[in-house]
Amino acid sequence: MAKEQKKMVDDITSMDEDFAKWYTDICKKAELIEYTSVKGCMVIRPYGYAIWENIQKILDSMFKATGHKNVCMPMFIPESLLQKEKDHVEGFAPECAWVTMGGNEQLEERLCVRPTSETLFCEHFKNIVHSYRDLPKLYNQWVSVVRWEKTTRPFLRSREFLWQEGHTLHETAEEAIEETERMLNIYTEFCQKYLAIPVIQGMKTDSDKFAGAERTYCIEALMHDGKALQAGTSHYFGNGFAKAFDIQFADRNNKLQYPYQTSWGMTTRLIGAIIMTHGDNNGLVLPPAVAPVQVMVIPIAQHKEGVLEKANAVCDRLKKICRADIDVSENTPGWKFAEYEMKGVPVRVEIGPKDIEKNQCVIVTRHNREKTFVSLDELETVILQKLEEVRSGLYEAALENRERRTYTCKTMDEITKALEENGDGFVKAMWCGDEACEDKVKEITGVGSRCIPLEQENISDVCVCCGKPAKKMLYWGKAY
């Protein structure tokens, strides 16, 4: 094993030895997060926040391209407002944090610290929507929310986390459903094109849908260890919230109607998804689209005449086409290689005296450590090619992992056998639609329903649990 490889393995617990410890090691040692004195909350450090900023920038442009506008709702929700939609409040009650004092005085009504903002948007929509001419309302906000999770882990579950939440209001059910599905497709495109994470589009079962929703659409990804991660959700509410909050508008015949509503969201757990989908025993492996630094230039023998000047000139050229940086510190090249592998920089450019003589540089891609000698005359063209190679290579590796860990089963015994012999993964199996069978599969096999995929397959005609006629094929799995 090469010296720099061994050093990285020493720094990070092997994922095969302890996947949870491996994950935490990367979060800490790649300087993504730091723990705080507030249990369950974290500091997102500059490098981690830069990843989120890039996620935010891309998603925000996709939202605006489809007509959405950003707003900002209050952090606090009066209890009486939260209580207006019965299913919604019951669904979030165990996770709510409450403010009962203002300064030294007891509040007349306690305030919930925003776990999600449906009720706030409903109150606002009631005040501003009066006619069909006021519709649709296509809103999004970038905020933090608080959910009092019992078990926390950086990015995956924390008591306060960052997210975007879209909230829209429509004249007809058809328009609202179209919006719900459109946002699901945007989330899918974002994950697959920009994060290089393959996802399965589906719908949650009734027992797992969002509190107050008629339908919850989702995208499910499979992590390196075979566990599933819900990467994004899009909810169709029908007009249930509108009725609860008495939101009405005059339609085209001047009759009062209730509008139809959606909401949809993605969170900082996407950073956890990136780590667990692409990371390796040497650290982070970042998809270029969201990497804070896409190309790091490393001068070799920088004390020798002309090396730093040439390396800086190379970096200046690269800054015109990508997010490039240079490390001119006095640390050894080996230390720098290890550092930027740890931080998942997609492409490394090395240049030293011998390279300068030959008018070349060495390009190393992070995902496969492949070295390429490139003429400086072709630098920009090759760098862009290499960044795309990283993206496509990461996607193909993640897809191969998912396909290899997806098991088609017709009985619960087959599910148990597949998991015991091959490890965790997605299980494709038929379901009768009965919640009791959904619960029993999880109780006996350990895998719960993840989604009803939009692309259905007929694996058999009977339910994997009870043997009655099957209605849908489900993806099952263990989840974060």
Please give the number of β-strands: 23
Oligomeric assembly: single chain
Q: What's the end-to-end separation, in Å?
A: 33 Å
Q: Roughly what fraction of the amino acids lie in strands?
A: 25-35%
Profile the largest sheet: 11 strands, mixed
Query: What is the C-alpha radius of gyration, as a whole number of Å?
Result: 25 Å
pLDDT averaged residue by residue: 95
Stretches where pLDDT is under 50 for at least 5 consecutive residues are: 1-9
Helix content: 25-40%
Number of helices: 15
By secondary-structure content and strand pairing, the structural class works out as alpha+beta
Sheet with the most strands: spatial strand order: 3-7-8-14-11-10-9-22-23-21-20
**Shape, please?**
globular
Structure notes:
The N terminus is likely disordered. It is built from 15 helices and 23 strands. Helix 14 links the parallel strand 20 and strand 21. It is 36% helix and 26% strand. It has 480 residues and is of the alpha+beta class.
